[in-house]
Every structure is written in C-alpha cells, then in structure tokens.
C-alpha cells in the first residue's frame, strides 16, 4: 500500500512539474507587442508596415484596398459619379455610394475608417518609441515619416467623413476624432472620444505635414520623402483655398528638379516609380489587393484576356465624359478602351489595368496644375507662368496649348488629366460646384460615420442624414 | 511525461505472470425466453475475468471455466443481462428475456464506464448498428433525429462538409459551440483545417462509421465536467469495436445506391424571363434594345428563343458505394477486432466526389490476470473533390443567376460552353478545374492497465491523432481565376495532437450497503498545427498541374500554431443501499490559451440519484413500475475554444511590395480565461411493465458567464476588437424521450419518440450588438436569442403604385427604405426538435423508419436580394416574381418590376420564411435469410436490405432544402455561431437510396 501511494505521488509530481512548463507556448507568426518596437530596425519595420497590404482581410496599411489600394481613389470618384461614371458592379457598398444612398452600415465607409485609424496608431506607436533610435538623423527621418502617415490619414478622413472645409465660416463643423497617442493597453483600446472640429483636424494635418516636410529626407527609397509631404501639403492648402501656401508647396516640389513629366500619358500607369511620380504606392504580383477581388484594377478594368477578362468592369466611364476630351487627346486615345463587360458597348479607363503595377498617388502633373491655378488666382507667376505649367500638361497629351488660360481652363484640365485618381469629389467641394442636384456642401456627399463606431463609442455624433 | 511512462514500463517488467488454475469445459444453449428461438451472438463472460465467448448461430456456446466453477454473465443487446452460477454443472442453458433498455448495460463515461442504472448524469447513447448502414460521409449525420437535446444540422449537401452540433443550445458567442470529441479516451482533432475557403470540411468524416460500437453524448455538467474547460458544449465519446473472445466472426458488407437533390428552387424559364424583364426595362424608362442598359447591353437577345435551365445544370445524379469487412475474435488472453472499408460517393452537385478508405485494428491482451494492455490503430485516407464555397462565382448553384435566354453550350468555344454569359459560366470548371482535399489520418492509442490492489487499478494511456491534409487546386487557363495561363495551389497541413491519460481507479463495497467508485487522474494534451502552401501561375498547358511546371510562383506560406492543456481530474461515486446515488467530479485545467494571470480553472460538479422503484413503498403500491429514478446534478464546465494566442499582445508581419514590415494586430488581455457554464439538470427515468414502456425527462438550466467575446472597440484607437470575458447567456430546456415495445413476440414493433425544447437568451452583452454581415440579418443583442434576425420589416406592396412598403417609425407603412427602423423579424433557433422512429420485425424481415422534425425556426434567403427582386438586375429570378405588381389595384407581395429600380431590393424581412420541416430521414427494409439455407454455403448470417435517406421532406420553405446553413461566413467561430439559418446559393441535401447486403461467416 505504501509503495502504491509513493508511486502515485511520484507519477503526479513528475507530471505536474513537467507539464506546467509546457503551457508556455509562443506564437510562431507573431511577436509580443510589449517588445515589438525595441530597436531602430523594429521601428523601421513598423513604418513599412504602415504602407503594407493585408490583402483580403480587414486592416492593413496605405497599399490596402481600404486606403490608396482602392477606396481613397475610388470613393472620391464614385461620390462624384454624375456625368462621369456608372457603377456596374454587384458590390452594394459602392452602389450605395454611387447613388448617394449610403447607409450608416456602408461597408466601404467602415473599412476605410478602420484601416486609416490603424495607420494612425502605427504612426503614434512609432512616435512614442523614438527613444529607442540612437542615430539622430534616423530618428528625425522616422519622426517625419510617422507624422507624414498620420497627417495624410487625418486629411483623407476629414475630407471623406466631414462636411467640407469652408462649410461653416469657422470650420467648427464636426471632423473626426484626433488620437495622438499609441494604444498599448486594453484601457486605451477602449477609450472613447468625441469628434474634433474640421478646423482642429486640418490644424493637426498641417502640423504633421509641415514637420514631416522638414524632417523627411529628400530621398527615402520607395517610401514617403520630403516631396511626398510637400505634395500633400499643396493639396491640403488647396483644399483650404489657401492658394499662396499651396503655390509655395507645389513650387518647392517642382523647383527641386527631381521630377519631370513622363514622355507619354500612359507611362505613370504602366511603369513603376517614373520620373513624374512624387508619391506612389508600391505593388507587385503577390502583394496587391487585386488578388483578393479588390483593388483598382479589379473595379476599373475590363480587359480581354484569353476569352475572359482582367477586372470586373464595375466602373464604366460614361460616353459623355470620354467626349469631353478632344478626339486626338492622347488621354482619350490611349487611356480609354472598350471593355469586355457590356458586350463591347462601354468605355473603361486604361489607368488601372494591371493588378501588380504601382499606384501613383501624387504626380508632377498635379503640382503643375496646382501652381498654375494658384498663380492665376493670385495673379502671380511664381516659378512659371500659368500658361507654361498648363500647357506642359496639355502638350504631353497632344492637345493644343492655351495661350492665356483662365482658372476654369486649369480646373477643366485637372478633370481630364487627373480623372480616376481620387481627386474628383474633393475638387468639386473646394470649388463649390455641384454633383447632379446636390450642392458641394450637401450632407449626402459626406460618408456616414460607420455604424459600428457609433455603437462602440457613445461620444460620436453621426453625420446629418444617416 | 516521459518519466512517467518510463516508470510504468519499469513496473511492467517486474511483473510475474500468474499461474493459471486448472480448467474444465462448460457448454450450453441460449434461447429467447418468449419464443424459444436460438439467440446467436450472445456475450458470455466469466464474472471477474476477461474470459468470454459468444453463442454461435444455433445459440450454442462452449467456455473454459476453473474447476471451482464461478458465475457466467450472459449479455445481449435488447435482452436482460443474466448472471448464472455454474456450480458443478457442465451444461448451462439460459433463456434471455427481451429488454430494450437494459439497466445493467455498461455505458462509457468520461475516463471509465458505469452501469446505466447508476448514472446520475444526463447522457444519450447511440449504438453503432443504428448508424453503420446509412450512406453518409460523416457519422454525425446518422445521429439526426435520435438525440434529444442535441441539435444536429447539416448546412448543405456538399460531401464531407462539417455539420453543426449544438448540445443543449449554443453556449457561446465568440468561442466554438461544437462539442469535444473523444475517440476511445483520446480527444481528437475536430476543427476544420482546410486552407482554401471558409466553408468547413469535417475531420470527423475520417472515422469509419462501421468501426463505431457506441456513441455517448454527455449533456449535463455531472456527465461532462470531468472534461473541464472543454465541456460546456457537451462531449461526444466515440467507442470503437473491440475484440471478443470466442469464435472468429467475419462480417462482410456492401451497399450501393444513388442520390438526387431533395428539393430544387424554381426559376423563370426563357419566355417568362423575357416577359418579366421586358416589363422591368420598360418600367425603368429604358428602351428594350438600348445598347447600354437594355437587353443588348448585357449580351442578351430576347428573341433568341433560347430556353436554358441553368439552375438544373448544377446538379446530377449521385451515387454511393461501400464495401467493408470486420473480423472479430480471440481468446481469453488476446482479443482483436480488424476492420476495413472503402466508401465512394459521387455528389448530387456536379464535380463533387468523396471517397474514403479505412483500416482499423483494435487489440487487447492480458499479460496476467492483473495486467492488461491494448492498442487501437486506425488509418484513414479521405479524398474529397470539393465544391467551391457558396459565395464563389464558381459555385455551381450560382448558375441559377444566369439568364435562361443565354445558351449553356457553344460549340465554337474551346471549352464547349458558352462563355459570353451575364455571370461566369462555371460549368467550364467541370473539365478545367480541380479542388481536392485529401486527408491522411492516423489514430493510435496504447494503454496499460494494472491492478495494484484488489479494487485499485492504474491505467496509463497514450494516444495520438495525426492529421495530414493535402490540398490541391488547379484552375485551368480557360477558367475565370486561371486565365490566362493557369493557376495552381498546393497546401500541406499537419496536425499533431497527442494526449496522455494516467488514472487511478478504486472500486469497493463496504458491507452490504455501501459501494464506492473513485477515480483520480492526470492528463496532458498538446496540439501543433503546421502548414505549408504555395501558389503558382503560368503553366505551359493545362496538362501540367504541379507547381514545378509553372513559371511564376506567386505565393508561398508556412505557419505553425498550437496549444497545450494540462489537467488533474477526480471523481467519486458513492452508492448507498443500491438506490441512493451520489457523485462528485472535479477537474483542474491549465491552458496555454489563457492569460498568464488566469492560467488554471476549476470545474466541479455534484449529482444525486434516487432509484425509487427499489423502495418498498413503490414496489408495493405500483408493482407495474419497473423503474423510477430521479436525478439531479449541478456543476461548472468551461469553454476554451478560442484562438490559440488570443490573450497576447501581438505584432504580425505585413508585406509592402518587395518590402515587409510589422503591424500591431492584437492588444494583450492577461486576464483572459475560459467561459464558465453553470448547469442544473433534473431528470426522471421511468419504466413500466418490465420496461416495455420506458423513457426519460430532463429539464436543464445552463447559464454561461464570462463569455469569451470579441468586444468591438472604437477603431479610432487602432483595434477593432479585444477578446474579453464579458457577458452571459442562458439556455433552458426540456428533453423527453419514450420507447415502447408495442409487440414483443414473433411480430415485434417498437416505437421511440423524442422531443427537445431549448430557449436561448443573451442575458448580458455589455457590448454593442453584434452583426454577422451587412448582407445577413443575424444579430446578437441583450434579451434576445443568439443570432436573432434583425432588419427592416417588409410589409408588401402598395396597391396604388407597386412600391415596396416597410414598417415605418410609428408602425405606419412607408416606401422609404432608409427611414424604416430595424426590428426583430425572425429567429433561426427552433422552438423544438425531435424524432419519431418505428422498428418492426417479423420472422426474417425488419422494417424501420425515422422521422426527424424541426419546428419554429426561420430561414433568411440571403440570395433573395439577387434572385427574388422583381427584375432589379438581370439575374434570373425565382418563379414567384411573376406575381409582381402590374397595375393599380393589384394586391401582391412582389413590387413593381423596375430594372435598377431598387424597388424592395434592400436587405429586409422580405426573404424570411418559416424553416420548419418534417423529414422522413431514414427508412430501411431488411430480410435476414434463414440460417438453414445459409449453412450449405458456409455463411452464418445474411441480411439484405434497402435503405433510403431523406426520402420525404415536408416544409413551407420555398428554397432548395429547409435544412440549410450557408458556410460562407465561416471565417471565425463567432461568424459561424451567429450566421445561422441563412441560405446563399447553398446546395440542398441528397436523397439517397441504397441496397445492401451483410454476410457473417
């Protein structure tokens, strides 16, 4: 009996000590958040991660479909679809946006909001971990890059989810919540916060982008550099109708001499990181949202391929828009085609035709047009005459120059040159035009605050009409 | 662990084989007490030993017994077990009395066995012979309608698809709601590991139903708490057939049959399509021949005269074939059961095939009369040619969206099919695409059992379950996804799941009135799942399908994950005067999944039972009562089926073109722990007239607290959800079953009826209501059952203008969809479920049928927004859309047809329907050929039979099949739990008819 008891105790004892240790398993595809950002290399990884693509899954970085990979381009286009494009797809979220009948549960609104704030959290995490970086230059560059990421995300959010800048005199209409600290604990993840005003958000955007433009290096490989920040600054000022500062920023980019217009209108969309490109989303055949039934090519393209088609052909370009181009305009002849979908009756844009090619976000042509517009509005000729800047773009497209252009001429050129590049609704709002019967400041042109956010954060106030 | 094993082996080595006493021979004959016929196959065992034999076809047996004699135990399914003292007789003849519900029957419980009479917990038993003959791919299907309190739902007719099993309701929102499966004492891998889509395939389909001796489903806390943190969803104990001493029995079986869909949804034919859409286009103010929006814009020709039946093209006549053998025998020292089978099925959905080959050897050996060892080894190979997910354009059922005026075939196309269709003509994939999931599975276990002292036995067990899943898909160059030069994918997933159990059991009677059974144990389990996969494009021709031949390797992947769980368990059963029963169980579980601050959980239960029928006051007052037993139990069980690393704060990798970075994916919750279910069960078991009528009633109240919930967070902080223990829900219910032996003589007729009611309610959520998807109505909110349907309420059509109407803010009808509030518009949880079976036998004939019913649940046809929307888009419409509104005054529920009109197209209760059904689940007619005829051909027994599965279905549901649950939202446990009762181009079940023969030699 005694031996038996001894045996049992021994067995259980050995078992206990041996097994308890075995409960400490570690994940193989992830690392512990507490120590994830503990070196300069880690922080660099986190910055790269902010650009990344998490194809087919919710959440990711700039290259993802929720952000520049699709929605930050497509939503501003579909919101201004009148006389422009028709939505031919089955995706309900985009259909609602095109018809301006969005529900608070709109899937595109939700995923774009979530992912934009994820990038903001990465930026905040990097900013809070900068003490781990020893090299002063590197530290400065990292801070600049994090501020760039945060700045452009707030800029995109406030333009999509709030009444436009200028809708009230003081811009005290509701913007989006500003979060400037990293989330490391459960308590922080659960914090609720009310929406800041549009003015406050723009101030934050400017603060971040101004600092980014001084801290980022002139060359930062394939990620954002000083000129990416300046390019966005020019956009922000333009949106605020602050033409002098928009002019200065655009001029600084152009005068850097680092960029020149591509020979051909198609180069920017067929080749990667061309001379014209100021900020560009990197993609390749493996890492792009297109492989997950998402992405610009999936929605915009309908290219014959061996009896089938590349792309879903969901965004049909209306004939009336194609006809706004002169017949010999290279942007008409080379950047439109008749798609497979619609049985040979529909035009599609040729800008987005390959899943794996890059997505230019800011190109020199836009900077030239900003400088031209600002110079015209200010009656100045900083850097070059408005005609010179405008005609540089026109000549490349093979259309006749305009010797003494007006603001209208430049705005029309923006429509033609920058079509399907995610600028349309923003331009309409800043120039106070209308979309069909909806005025520039109509609440129907503002995305709903996602229902899930309202549910999870009782301090959020929904946009009017939702 | 290793040291423990070593120690055990050491002890084995010093054991001395006990000397055998001198033996003598006893023979006899077993007959039926009622009709005097011989009873073959009766187990005859010498009490207190492993010596045993079986009666032969004439009921005769021979057994060696010690010269001192002893006691023989005669047991047979459906008969009262008898113990007969041998004395100094050499012939012992026995008459067995019929008893379908033998109280002395030994049933399997967690880590042991118990007499049914002494059970204080609630568990349901299914015998292997009830399921072995049904033509199903996975054994759970065969349990439908037989298990009160266990709802078993087959979501679709796809071969090898996983079923949904809910023991006493869904006890969780975010963690798995599937029970724990234990095969011969070893917990096995039951979660799907496939990497190609969200729809789950069942790892349980690797088990050969022929191998199963019995299945026990542990329902209440008293029965299940011994499985601790994994017992909240119930536990399914599968016991395989083991060898029996006696003559070697050889069984051979074969069946073959065919299958068809149970039901099909009805769609418009060509002329009807043209009629409806001409009207819709015209109503939209568009010319019929408008090149953009009219028929030509979509490649449609209303005058083509084509009338294709696309919906039917998705289906074919399926077939089933199975052959199996089983050899069983041995002597008192060594016993074996060797079985093998091959099963081949062709699905009712095109391109769907399944085949499985199994081998199993179960071996037991007594080294001495104190020391026995045994092993179970089983190998399975399953090859499943899968159907694409419901949400894929390549899903054949989605063909029903194609306009009937487009031809199916095109002789000029290289595929032979018309590829100029509105949506992808996925028939192309029949010859140009493959999607295989091949499983290679090994179940193995080894045990040793040693009697340390009289009544005290140590048992050590080691078992593993290795699952190798090889997936291979190829999309040819002519398919949508494979264009232009083919795409191939290969994945290898290996799950290595191993367990050791070490238990000490003690059994002793103290005096005449006290009896004690105790068990203590230590177990450890670990699972590692590793996967490797690769994708490539650009193959020289479609004849090359291995990735080596492709020029572009587009993706490669390898992952590994796992968990471990260490447990201490104990059980004490005490019986006083053979009629007052007490039980206590407890388990401590430590799991790697839980937060470091909450690693170990304790799961106790207590139960009592009282066999009133053994009290004199009952015996005397109502002698007809043969059994009256009351039981009560209360206990705590857990659920730990969450992501392996849900408690950790994590950063994961994310690619950016050629670069790669990291991003935060999860915030830590160091307090994360198991969910806790507290369950009270009250049961009454009864039998009258020598148990000719018997049954049981159970009521239960199961409250689950500390729900593991992915709590939605404001995304503004960078995270959308955190796994927390928050919220609670409750399942209450009643289960009733009754079995009657209506006739017991030459003509035998027995009936079983069972019914179960479960009410599920979320009692506390603490978080914002949860939705499954914007396309689904599924909703989780406080005060309502899990997965209630929540959405806008469709009221019908305005007779004046044909506009769709919804219930508005004040209950007034409104045509403004946006302003209509969301309301509770249905419930996918049934009011009750159950079954009714009847078994008849006369002379050699037997007939049985089983009806299954599910009542009071709703179904939402998620595809309604495409297929039943009065011609809003060019998708072919269901035939009911013909009754659309056409002119003022029309009273109908289908709005005016307007192309792109958005008239009644939003998600709403418009596509909610009653999903109740009554189904003739199985019917079987068999004939046992008389043994006199067989002897000449050296056959002992032969049965020929014809069996039907899903023969008749009665329902009001308009869709394919009312037993439906689309799997396309199955990416997470939470989505699987919530997205109930939705139909989305989901294939129906198969109606299968087979004929078969079983021979015994």
UniProtKB/TrEMBL annotation, chain A:
Cell location: Cell outer membrane
Every RagB/SusD domain range: 357-433
Keywords: Cell outer membrane, Membrane, Signal
Pfam family, one: SusD-like_3
Domain SusD-like N-terminal: 99-238
Signal peptide region: none
CDD domains registered for this protein in UniProt: SusD
Main location as per UniProt: membrane
Family: Belongs to the SusD family.
Protein name (Swiss-Prot/TrEMBL): RagB/SusD family nutrient uptake outer membrane protein
Taxonomic classification: Bacteria, Pseudomonadati, Bacteroidota, Cytophagia, Cytophagales
């Amino acid at each position: 009996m005694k031996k038996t008891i001894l045996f049992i105790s021994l067995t259980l004892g050995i078992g206990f000590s041996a097994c308890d240790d075995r409960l400490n398993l570690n994940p193989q595809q992830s690392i512990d958040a507490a120590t994830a950002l503990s070196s300069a290399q880690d922080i660099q990884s986190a910055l790269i991660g902010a650009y990344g693509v998490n194809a087919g899954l919710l959440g990711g970085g700039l290259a993802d479909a929720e952000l520049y990979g699709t929605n930050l381009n497509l939503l501003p286009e579909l919101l201004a679809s009148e006389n422009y494009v028709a939505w031919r797809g089955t995706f309900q979220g985009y259909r609602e946006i095109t018809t301006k009948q969005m529900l608070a549960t709109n899937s595109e609104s939700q995923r774009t909001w979530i992912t934009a704030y994820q990038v903001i959290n990465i930026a905040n995490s990097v900013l809070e971990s900068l003490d781990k970086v020893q090299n002063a230059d590197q530290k400065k560059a990292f801070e600049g890059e994090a501020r760039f990421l945060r700045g452009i995300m707030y800029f995109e959010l406030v333009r999509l989810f709030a009444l436009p800048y200028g809708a009230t005199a003081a811009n005290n209409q509701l913007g989006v919540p500003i979060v400037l600290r990293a989330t490391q604990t459960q308590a922080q993840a659960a914090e609720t916060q009310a929406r800041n005003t549009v003015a406050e958000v723009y101030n934050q955007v400017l603060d971040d982008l101004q600092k980014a433009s001084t801290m980022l290096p002139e060359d930062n490989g394939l990620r954002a550099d000083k000129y990416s920040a300046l390019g966005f600054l020019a956009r922000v000022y333009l949106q605020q109708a602050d033409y002098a500062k928009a002019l200065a920023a655009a001029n600084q980019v152009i005068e850097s001499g680092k960029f020149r217009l591509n020979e051909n209108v198609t180069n920017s969309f067929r080749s990667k990181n061309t001379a014209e490109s100021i900020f560009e989303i990197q993609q390749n055949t493996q890492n792009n949202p297109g492989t997950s039934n998402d992405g610009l090519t999936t929605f915009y393209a309908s290219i014959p391929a061996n009896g089938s088609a590349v792309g879903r052909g969901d965004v049909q370009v209306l004939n009336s828009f194609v006809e706004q181009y002169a017949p010999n305009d290279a942007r008409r002849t080379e950047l439109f085609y008749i798609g497979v979908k619609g049985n040979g009756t529909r035009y599609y844009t040729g800008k987005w035709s390959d899943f794996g090619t890059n997505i230019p976000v800011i190109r020199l042509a836009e900077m030239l047009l900003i400088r031209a517009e600002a110079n015209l509005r200010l009656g100045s000729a900083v850097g070059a005459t408005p005609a010179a800047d405008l005609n540089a773009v026109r000549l490349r497209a093979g259309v006749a120059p305009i010797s003494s252009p007006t603001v209208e001429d430049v705005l029309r050129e923006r429509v033609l040159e920058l079509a399907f590049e995610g600028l349309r609704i923003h331009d309409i709002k800043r120039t106070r035009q209308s979309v069909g019967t909806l005025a520039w400041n109509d609440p129907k042109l503002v995305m709903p605050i996602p229902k899930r956010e309202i549910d999870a954060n009782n301090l959020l106030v929904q946009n009017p009409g939702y | 662990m290793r040291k423990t094993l070593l120690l055990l082996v050491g002890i084995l080595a010093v054991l001395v084989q006990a000397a055998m006493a001198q033996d003598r021979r006893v023979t006899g004959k077993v007959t039926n007490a009622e009709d005097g016929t011989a009873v073959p196959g009766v187990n005859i065992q010498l009490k207190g030993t492993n010596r045993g034999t079986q009666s032969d076809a004439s009921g005769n047996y021979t057994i060696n017994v010690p010269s001192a004699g002893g006691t023989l135990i005669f047991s047979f399914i459906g008969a009262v077990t008898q113990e007969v003292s041998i004395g100094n007789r050499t012939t012992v003849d026995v008459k067995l009395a019929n008893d379908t519900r033998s109280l002395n029957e030994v049933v399997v419980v967690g880590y042991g066995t118990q007499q049914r009479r002494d059970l204080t917990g609630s568990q349901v038993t299914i015998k292997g012979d009830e399921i072995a003959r049904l033509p199903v791919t996975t054994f759970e299907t065969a349990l439908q309608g037989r298990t009160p309190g266990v709802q078993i739902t087959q979501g679709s007719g796809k071969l090898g698809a996983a079923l949904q099993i809910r023991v006493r309701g869904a006890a969780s929102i975010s963690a798995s709601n599937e029970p724990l499966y234990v095969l011969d004492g070893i917990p096995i891998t039951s979660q799907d590991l496939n990497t190609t889509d969200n729809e789950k395939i069942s790892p349980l389909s690797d088990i050969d139903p022929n191998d199963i001796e019995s299945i026990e489903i542990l329902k209440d806390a008293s029965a299940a708490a011994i499985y601790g943190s994994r017992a909240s969803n119930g536990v399914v104990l599968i016991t395989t057939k083991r060898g029996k001493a006696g003559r070697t029995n050889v069984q051979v079986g074969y069946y073959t049959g065919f299958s068809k869909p149970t039901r099909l949804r009805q769609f418009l034919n060509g002329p009807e399509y043209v009629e409806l859409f001409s009207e819709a286009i015209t109503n939209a103010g568009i010319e019929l021949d408008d090149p953009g929006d009219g028929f030509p814009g979509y490649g449609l020709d209303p005058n083509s005269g084509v009338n294709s039946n696309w919906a039917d093209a998705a289906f074919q006549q399926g077939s089933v074939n199975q052959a199996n053998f089983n050899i069983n025998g041995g002597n008192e020292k060594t016993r074996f059961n060797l079985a093998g089978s091959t099963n081949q099925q062709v699905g009712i959905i095109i391109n769907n095939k399944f085949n499985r080959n199994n081998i199993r050897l179960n071996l037991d050996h007594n080294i001495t009369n104190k020391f026995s060892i045994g092993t179970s080894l089983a190998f399975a190979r399953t090859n499943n040619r899968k159907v694409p997910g419901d949400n894929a354009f390549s899903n054949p059922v989605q063909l029903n969206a194609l306009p009937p005026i487009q031809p199916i075939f095109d002789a000029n196309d290289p595929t032979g099919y018309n590829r100029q269709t509105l949506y992808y003509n996925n028939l192309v994939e029949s010859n140009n695409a493959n999607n295989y999931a091949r499983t290679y599975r090994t179940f193995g276990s080894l045990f040793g059992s040693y009697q340390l002292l009289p009544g005290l036995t140590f048992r050590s067990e080691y078992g593993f379950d290795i699952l190798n899943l090889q997936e291979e898909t190829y999309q040819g160059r002519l398919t949508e996804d494979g264009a232009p030069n083919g795409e191939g994918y290969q994945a290898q997933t290996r799950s290595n799941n191993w367990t050791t159990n070490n238990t000490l059991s003690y059994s002793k009677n103290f005096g005449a009135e006290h009896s004690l059974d105790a068990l203590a144990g230590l177990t450890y389990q670990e699972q590692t799942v590793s996967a490797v996969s690769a994708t490539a494009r650009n193959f020289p021709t479609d004849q090359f399908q291995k990735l080596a031949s492709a020029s572009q390797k587009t993706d490669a992947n390898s992952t590994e994950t796992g968990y471990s769980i260490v447990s201490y368990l104990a059980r004490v059963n005490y019986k006083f005067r053979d009629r007052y029963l007490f039980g206590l169980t407890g388990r401590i579980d430590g799991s790697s999944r839980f937060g470091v601050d909450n690693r170990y959980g304790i799961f106790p239960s207590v139960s009592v039972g009282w066999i009133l029928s053994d009290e004199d006051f009952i015996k005397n007052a109502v002698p007809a009562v043969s059994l009256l037993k009351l039981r009560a139990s209360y206990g705590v069980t857990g659920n730990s089926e969450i992501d392996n690393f849900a408690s950790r704060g994590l950063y994961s990798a994310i690619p950016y073109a050629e670069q790669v970075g990291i991003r935060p994916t999860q915030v830590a919750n160091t307090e994360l722990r198991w969910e806790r279910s507290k369950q009270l069960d009250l049961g009454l078991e009864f039998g009258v007239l020598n148990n000719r009528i018997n049954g049981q009633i159970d009521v239960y109240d199961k409250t689950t607290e500390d729900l593991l919930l992915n709590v939605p967070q404001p995304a503004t902080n960078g995270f959308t959800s955190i796994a927390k223990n928050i919220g609670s829900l409750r399942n209450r219910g009643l289960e009733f079953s009754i079995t009657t032996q209506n006739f017991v003589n030459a003509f035998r007729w027995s009936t079983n009826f069972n019914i179960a009611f479960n009410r599920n309610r979320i009692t506390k959520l603490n978080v914002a209501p949860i939705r499954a998807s914007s396309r689904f109505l599924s909703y989780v909110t406080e005060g309502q059952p899990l997965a209630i349907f929540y959405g806008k309420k469709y009221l019908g059509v305005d007779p004046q203008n044909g506009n769709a109407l919804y219930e508005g803010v004040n209950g007034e009808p409104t045509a403004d969809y946006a302003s209509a509030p969301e309301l509770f518009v249905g419930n996918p949880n049934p009011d009750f479920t159950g079954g009714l079976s009847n078994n008849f036998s006369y002379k050699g004939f037997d007939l049985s049928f089983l009806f299954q019913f599910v009542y009071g649940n709703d179904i939402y046809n998620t595809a309604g927004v495409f297929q039943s929307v009065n011609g809003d888009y060019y998708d072919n419409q269901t035939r009911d859309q013909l009754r659309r509104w056409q002119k003022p005054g029309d009273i109908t529920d289908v709005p005016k047809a307007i192309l792109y009109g958005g008239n009644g197209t939003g998600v709403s209760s418009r596509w909610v329907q009653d999903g109740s059904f009554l189904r003739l689940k199985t019917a079987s007619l068999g004939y046992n050929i008389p043994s006199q005829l067989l002897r000449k051909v050296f056959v002992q027994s032969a049965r020929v039979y014809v069996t039907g599965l899903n023969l008749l279905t009665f329902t009001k549901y308009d869709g394919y099949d009312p037993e439906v649950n689309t799997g396309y939202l199955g990416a997470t446990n939470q989505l699987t739990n919530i997205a109930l009762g939705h139909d989305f181009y989901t294939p129906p079940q198969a109606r299968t008819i087979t004929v078969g023969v079983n021979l015994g030699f």
